[in-house]
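Weekly puzzle thread! Below is a chain. First person to post its structure in token form gets bragging rights.
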Amino acid sequence: KQVLDVAAIIGKRFAGSVLHQVVRLPEDDYLQALDELWRRALILVIGDDDYEFDHELVREVLYETLSAMRRRQLHRLVAETMADLYAGDLSSLGEQIAEHYVRGGRPLEAAQVLLQTTQGQSGALVLATAQAHISRALELLEKAPRTTAATTLASTCWLHLGTLLARHRLYDDDQMRQAFVRAQHLSRQLPDARLRFWALRGL
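Winning reply:
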């Protein structure tokens, strides 16, 4: 039941490495549980370490049987586990990790992951994706408690957006300038002047 619950939280398709680390069962017990689920035709083996629910409805029913508190806890554990396992490359899984953080009641961490997925990338198509991720991060931060950490992250998001637009020069100067203005406005609320310096430099 524990293995099924966590698998239902991860999603229709899930990595065995993530599942194993969250359930924290001895390896023999974990592999036996997976084998039993496969024998009962609840999951399919689709790769060396990848599995999938045979029917999405089964996963949905399992998900709905969990209490709201338990779902939040498991989403948070899955997010933390995935963020640790895939820290070196968030580009493909960052959005999924962020969604787990959101459902786990951690909007600040979700926004941080979304921002990280936009860093160190280039190209017009990547820029469009980065803008979407930064917009989502800022939306989450608007709903988060007004803390120094949240304000710092929001200012960093605007600063990074302005930097991306300046680098690609695919958008008008007003949009780029607006991003730096927002970053600078938020940075005034912070004790550390470094963000303010970089925002002013962008302007």
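Puzzle host: Confirmed. Bonus trivia for everyone else. The beta strands are 13-15, 43-45, 50-53.
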